[in-house]
Automatic annotation (TrEMBL):
Protein name: RRM domain-containing protein
Keyword Oxidoreductase: no
Natural source organism: Chrysodeixis includens (Soybean looper)
CDD domains: RRM1_RBM45
Stored Gene3D superfamilies: 3.30.70.330
Length: 509
């Protein structure tokens, strides 16, 4: 199981901007940074050279990472230096694009030669070829069309013969194309299929969790069916709750949530809801005892499904939820009394009294719920101190600056975003998109936008991490029309473009 916070830190550290601008060099162990720098800096500005060393001996491992400021510099270095020798070394070096752990060890070099571009609906392949041929030899152009109407879908793929040609086009083509390096087809297919194979791979991929369950219940694997009667043997220290709140982004079907949390003994109910607009699902899960609920939070918070969906698991400490569960038990008990015996009016009066007490207890901590947003009652509304709320600017105000917002794992409610971003003044509006993990905040003054960026970038809002960046340009009408299920954000570029993909949306950070 991956640690969510650690994964986010790794992603931030490993994000090369611009994309594919860091190369991996396999070389002689006797070579030093001083030997590599003059050989590689002729291809462009070098931001950093790192040569890992053995922790025990301090000797070079015979590898190096060279980070360039431009993708084309890295591509030129690979083209010219691969299998060449340096400093009279008899062993030729090997030079390739440095990959990350989250690249799934994909060795298909075509992903460095294929660009994904946005085009207007009337664009033709000859028009696209004419523009992109200026940067290198174009192998093919694939203009995406609707299978039914044969109309252009507003984007295309441009395949080059070499990584260097693609890199030049990526950097120098007209910005209206919003060029990015395309996600390989096999990665898109793997993302689509992995969740479907979840049932088959579930027990094997989570064997460590199942093993821990066995240890907590002091029973061999073959006696798993007896675990419901042995919940008292759980070693986890119980807390004062038996109900948990589960959030998953992107959303998965209820059967996968049921299967995962039913591993822990004593699950009595799973109330599942999905928010298709924001692209996540939630479940309220109740266990027979507090220890099982505690263990579910400890072991399954930040759990990652095989296809990348992330779970957030925390105690359900909403007093109204507890009141609702208790009221349900009261009503069911009284209903049974009516069905099978003459109802006891004393019991009815007692049920009404208990219901009244529960409602008062649930609302005694503050104003009526209709006057206070539920999220605003939480202590962890925002991880940083915010100034008092300020009124919104007129909706017809001129937009002085836009902020580009990235959410992980999913967007908070829009009213919560407005609550946070309005505190710097001059906020015109905040918008998010269905099934996407990004949005925009529009300000009527640059001062307010910059203050929002300085304060909220890297903060958490309702336990959702924010990235708040300066948007480089105002989106056109076509941008807004085409922000659909085929769009995603590419964090490998510093231009913060909208990435349109064919049928899948992913977000890398």
């Amino acid at each position: 199981m991956n640690n969510w916070n650690q994964s986010m830190r790794n992603d931030d550290r490993n994000d090369d901007k611009p994309p594919y601008s860091r190369i991996f060099v396999v070389c002689n162990k006797q070579l030093r940074v001083e030997d590599l720098r003059p050989a590689f800096e002729v291809y462009g500005h070098i931001e950093d050279i790192h040569m890992p060393r053995d922790r025990s001996t301090g000797e070079s491992k015979g590898i190096a990472y060279v980070k360039y400021s431009k993708t084309s510099s890295a591509a030129a270095a690979i083209k010219e230096m691969h299998l060449k020798t340096i400093q009279n070394s008899s062993k030729p070096i090997r030079v390739m694009v440095a990959t990350h752990k989250n690249d799934n060890h994909n060795t298909n070099e075509d992903k460095y030669k294929r660009l994904f571009i946005k085009v207007h609906k009337e664009a033709t392949e000859s028009e696209i070829r004419h523009h992109f041929a200026a940067f290198g030899q174009v192998e093919s152009i694939h203009l995406q069309r609707d299978k039914v109407t044969d109309e252009s879908r507003g984007f295309a793929y441009v395949n080059y013969m070499s990584f260097l040609d693609a890199a030049k086009a990526f950097e120098e083509c007209d910005r209206k194309y919003k060029a990015i390096f395309a996600t390989p087809k096999e990665e898109l297919k793997r993302s689509r299929n992995s969740i479907e194979n979840f049932s088959e791979s579930f027990h094997s991929s989570n064997s460590s969790i199942i093993k821990d369950y066995n240890e907590h219940y002091n029973q061999p694997r073959g006696d798993m069916h007896k675990r419901d009667s042995m919940t008292s043997l759980i070693k986890a220290k119980s807390q004062n709750y038996d109900t948990i709140c589960v959030t998953c982004s992107p959303q998965v079907q209820q059967k996968y949530i049921d299967k995962l949390f039913n591993i822990i003994p004593g699950m009595t109910s799973c109330k599942y809801t999905s928010d298709s607009f924001n692209g996540f699902c939630k479940a309220i899960i109740t266990y027979e005892n507090e220890k099982s609920a505690t263990y579910a939070v400890e072991r399954l918070n930040n759990f990652e499904f095989p296809s990348g969906e992330i779970l957030s698991v925390k105690p359900d400490d909403n007093p109204l939820s507890k009141a609702a569960n208790n009221l349900t038990n009261i009503v069911n008990s009284f209903k049974n009394a009516i069905d099978y015996t003459n109802p006891d009016l004393v019991q009815l009066a007692d049920a009404i009294a208990q219901a009244s007490t529960l409602i008062k207890a649930a609302t005694s901590s503050g104003p009526a719920l209709r006057d206070v947003k539920p999220e605003a009652q939480q202590e962890n509304f925002c991880s940083v101190s915010l100034p008092p709320p300020q009124p919104l600017a007129n909706s017809n105000s001129r937009v002085a600056q836009r902020c580009f917002l990235v959410f992980k794992p999913h967007p908070p409610p829009v009213h919560m975003l407005k609550d946070a971003f309005c505190r710097f003044g001059d906020l015109i509006d905040v918008s998010t998109f269905p099934n996407k993990t990004f949005g925009f905040a529009k300000y009527a003054s640059v001062r307010a936008a910059q203050e929002a960026i300085r304060t909220l970038h890297g903060a958490t809002l309702c336990e959702i991490r924010l990235k708040v960046l300066e948007a480089d340009e105002r989106p056109s009408k076509d941008d807004k029309v085409n922000v659909d299920n085929e769009s995603s954000v590419d964090h490998n570029t510093d231009r913060k473009r909208i990435k349109l993909d064919d049928g899948d949306s992913t977000m890398s950070q």
